[in-house]
Amino acid sequence: MTDDRLLLNAYVDGELDPAHALEFEQRLAADPALAAAHARLVALRSAIAARLPREQASPQLRRRVAALARPKAALPGWRALAASVAVAFVAGSALTYAVRDFGANAPDQLPPVLVASHLRSLMASQPFDVASSDRHTVKPWFNGKIPESPRVVNLSSQGFELAGGRIDVIDLTPVPTLIYKRRLHVISLTALPSKLGTSPPRTIDGYNIVDWTDGNLTYWAISDLAASELEEFARAFRAGEAEP
Q1: pLDDT tens-digit map of 47-62
Q2: Domain ranges of the chain
Q3: Which pTM value belongs to this model?
């Protein structure tokens, strides 16, 4: 099934060569479940593109990437690799949305962007960069990748299993997202600077959103869990014992 998901994403992205694309199309025609998954993925991507038009990289970012890329042939070893990675990041950022100049409208602009990040993670082969139910593994993984590791709480006794973590990009800034699971439902919990504000609990396209502020951070929980269960998760996380 994992191979099918990887092939499906590659097919939709146009990454398969003609021979493999034809072979996969034949499988789609013969496998109703795979065809249904294909239809859902195409519909989901269309909905994201319609609701959140792609942001263009800023002129400053383009200049910085161009400065890295131009001399890369003369750069030795790791510098050439770093330049290549920077170019690849910009070229491959079609599904990464940047939010700028929130101002007074931050509470209205943030939820759709965070729901889109949650949906993109569900379209990947797995919704996290580090997979672990151990907070002593998840929290240190963020060290060196972002300025401050997030608060990590073990909620397995309340029925919310820690599954891992990932880094999302909001306003061109890497931010931590913790992944919890309840039954077959995935919860994305993203920590953002509290200056961006909060919003009342709401639902976007069937995905519930609950947020709260703790110190200088605001936590945003996104999931297709029932609203009451997501609020239960939020209460449990706020009351839980954090990673020391």
Answers
A1: 666 666 555 666 766 6
A2: 2-51, 59-91, 103-239
A3: 0.59
